[in-house]
């Protein structure tokens, strides 16, 4: 197991290197002029050349990449082209917002999706099963921005129960913080809940048909014991992969939600950087999210052995 963990950790290094190359090259070749975003489109050529020299944009791409990679390895992503603030500090301020939303959404989706999938699998073809699958299809098909708009109109505009936009840190006011989290988290919960429920049902139906489950039933064990102790643990293995993928998707897919609710998160920072041709910020965001996705993938692989001891890594 230790050798497997070491190999998986070492595998992350070349993947991260490829990710940095992809992010840097893509930002260098896409249309857009950072000097124009800084000075304005009507700036004179001399001023643009001076800014290019100050930012090092007149140097060869390979030299700029190696300089950036060396600084990034030390945690220094440079300064934003738009506001000239340290990018590392912006990431430290905004990443906790995105991470909290993603974790809250995933936890709630797991608590809802797994029981829903299990209940649907235990009673296939029943009204509960059909309703669960209708919910799963609707949850995947309904766009997040549309659901966010509906929630804001109903709970904020009509009922005045929850704030429509803004963010209050937990340290300043815990109650207001929770009130500001509810709507964006509820918007993000729907899709992962539907996907987890559908995957859990499919996996559970297959496991319930296995010989060892039929043997457990033949021994006279209670239905609850058979489902929870014998079937659920093995059925969770493919669901773990889905949980990891959903957390990765939540980390990288909060751009629209953060924009709708006015949250100072990583997604909104990325959107501002893209519209402002802020290449260093885009590269830092891509690298941070990519590192998070690779870390989640590693943790999911390690959880396999815990959930099912029969799994052994050569």
Give an overview of the whole structure.
The chain has two domains: 2-73, no CATH class; 91-307, MetI-like fold, CATH 1.10.3720. The model has no long low-confidence stretch (mean pLDDT 84). With 314 residues, the protein is mainly α. The chain is built from 13 helices and no strands.
Instruction: Give the number of helices.
Output: 13
Extended strand count: 0
Distance between the ends: 8 Å
**Structural class computed from helices and strand pairing:** mainly alpha
What is the makeup of the main sheet?
none
Do you know the CATH architecture of the largest domain? Orthogonal Bundle
CATH topology of the largest domain: MetI-like fold
Q: Which range best describes the helical content: under 10%, 10-25%, 25-40%, 40-55%, 55-70% or over 70%? A: over 70%
Query: Class of the largest domain, according to the CATH hierarchy?
Result: Mainly Alpha
Strand residue percentage: under 5%
Number of separate structural domains: 2
Shape call: globular
* Helix/strand order, N-terminal first: HHHHHHHHHHHHH
Specify Rg, calculated over alpha carbons. 24 Å
The CATH superfamily name of the largest domain is MetI-like
């Amino acid at each position: 197991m230790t050798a497997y963990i070491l190999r998986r950790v070492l595998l992350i290094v070349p993947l991260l290197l490829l990710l940095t190359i992809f992010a840097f090259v893509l930002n260098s070749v896409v249309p857009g002029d950072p000097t124009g975003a800084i000075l304005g489109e009507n700036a004179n050529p001399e001023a643009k050349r001076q800014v290019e020299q100050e930012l090092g944009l007149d140097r060869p791409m390979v030299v700029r990449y190696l300089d950036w990679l060396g600084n990034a390895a030390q945690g220094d992503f440079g300064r934003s082209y738009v506001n000239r603030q340290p990018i590392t500090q912006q990431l430290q301020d905004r990443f906790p917002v995105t991470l909290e939303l993603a974790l809250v959404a995933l936890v709630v989706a797991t608590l809802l999706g797994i029981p829903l999938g299990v209940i649907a699998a235990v009673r296939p073809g029943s009204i509960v099963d059909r309703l669960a699958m209708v919910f799963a299809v609707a949850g995947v098909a309904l766009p997040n921005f549309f659901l966010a708009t509906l929630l804001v109109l109903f709970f904020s505009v009509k009922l005045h129960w929850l704030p429509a936009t803004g963010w209050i840190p937990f340290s300043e006011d815990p109650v207001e913080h929770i009130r500001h989290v509810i709507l964006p988290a509820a918007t993000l919960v729907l899709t992962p809940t539907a996907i987890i429920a559908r995957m859990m049902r499919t996996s559970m139906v297959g496991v319930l048909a296995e010989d060892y489950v039929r043997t457990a039933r033949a021994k006279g064990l209670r239905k609850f014991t058979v489902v929870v102790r014998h079937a659920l643990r093995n059925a969770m293995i493919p669901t773990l992969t889905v949980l990891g993928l959903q957390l990765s998707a939540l980390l990288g897919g909060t751009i629209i939600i953060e924009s709708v609710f006015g949250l100072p998160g990583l997604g909104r920072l990325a959107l501002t950087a893209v519209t402002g041709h802020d290449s260093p910020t885009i590269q830092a965001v891509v690298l941070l999210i990519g590192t998070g996705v690779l870390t989640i993938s590693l943790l999911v692989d390690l959880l396999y052995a815990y959930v099912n001891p029969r799994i052994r890594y050569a």
